[in-house]
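Trying the structure run again after the queue cleared.
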Amino acid sequence: MRLNTSQIIVIVVSILLFLMLFSFGRTKPIIKKGSESATDSLPPLNDQAMLAGARSTLDSSQIKLLSALEQQKSQAKNLEEEVLTLKLISRTWNEFGNFAAGAYYAEKVAELKPSGEAWAISGTTFGIAFNKELADVALKKYLGHKAINAFQKAFKLEPDSVQHGINEAVMYVELSMVDTKVMPMTGAQKLLELDKKNPDNININLQLGRLSFTRSGDVQKAIPRFEKVLKLAESKGGVDPGMVLEAHFSLAECFAKSNEKDKAIFHYKKCIELTSDNPSVQKELKASLEKLEKGVN
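Done. Tokens:
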């Protein structure tokens, strides 16, 4: 069996931690459009409720460490000391595996010392937490909206940084899978608006290719996007190898789905070349290529 579509992100992340968080995970719809989830009638989750839930997961040694850091923050003599301590608290929560709380403290850093980078870090961390949360829909909605808010603030402070706009758009796509109040096309429209202003941006083309391939299943729209990613990568140079790998893998899958076997084989072989430093991934790709060549589904 060929690697399925969702495995492309596993491959890319395992090699290069592609796009730090963001390549956001491919969230499967938790609630159907046109229906109301049980959480829609509940009060929105707030920061304090989230933090209370986070603290309830700590053991005694973790509580002791964070309490000491909170005390250190309260005793900060100036803004710089407070910000440094908040960053340490955020990092500590992340190390404990609770990125929601880590994002909250990163948000406090951004509020005290606003910058595009600070807000992007907060949004990124909320995005990681969003992808890690699988069961609590109310919490997932909260995290998604917090991530969008952070990216919007980052984009406002740094309007020339296209990445902030991309992150916001992708987060809208992901959030629409769990929040009936977020229109599915919001993220796609934002990406298309960015594409009009930045037609040769590799990441925008990659994201639009993903949307066509994984969301709507329209391989004929996806193929030109992924091909453009490769063309731009070749002409520009210095492009993240993970993007090139993902484009080749996606094209292999797209051409396989459209019964263009020779083209699919070509792109699988390119993937194998690009994963020479990752034997386990390369082995999976070789097995998939062999089955494709033999005509095994």
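The longest helix spans residues 137-157. Worth checking whether this holds up in the mutant runs.
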